[in-house]
Write a structure and sequence with these properties.
This protein has 149 residues and is mainly alpha-helical. Helix content is 56%, strand content 0%. The longest helix has 27 residues, at 70-96. GO terms for molecular function: metallopeptidase activity; zinc ion binding.
Length: 149
């Protein structure tokens, strides 16, 4: 299976990281262990406006829910987590407004740096810092916390 690098680029760009002039592939080639997989040409990245058509898949599904279905699940993972996940974050930015979204994200990064966090903690931070109840927003974007409890 080909390694997909577009999500790395999108994630780095969303986090405000500097992507080297040669792109993420060039950076990965410089840091990859000799003999390890070398990335293919990057796949163009486009955030998906809709979640995966199969309701079995959602943003809070554990990775095992995707991998249990083999290649179909891996493709659905890429689609839901990287493509639709990016769309969900952009929609959250629109919901909160740029200023509040970036303030909330800065708080999130400061509180969670070097740690392992849950989706529930992310939502709690977004709600606490914005003063908004985001239950309906996340439910509409197929983020279900019951899968993580």
């Amino acid at each position: 299976m080909k390694r997909r690098t577009a999500p790395v680029t999108a994630t780095l760009m969303m986090m405000g990281a500097v992507v080297p002039a040669g792109g993420v592939d060039a950076a990965l080639r410089q840091t990859t262990v000799p003999g390890a997989y070398q990335p293919a040409d990057p796949v163009p990245f486009h955030a998906s406006p809709e979640p995966h058509p199969d309701p079995y898949y959602h943003l809070s599904s554990p990775v095992s829910a995707f991998t249990a279905r083999g290649e179909e699940g891996i493709d659905a993972y890429y689609y839901m987590i990287y493509s639709y996940g990016a769309r969900t974050l952009n929609d959250l930015r629109n919901e909160l407004g740029d200023k509040q979204f970036y303030q909330s994200m800065q708080t999130w990064f400061q509180e969670q740096k070097f740690g392992i966090a849950t989706t529930k903690e992310f939502i709690d931070t977004m709600e606490r810092t914005s003063g908004k109840n985001l239950d309906k927003f996340f439910e509409a974007h197929r983020v279900y916390l019951s899968d993580q409890e």
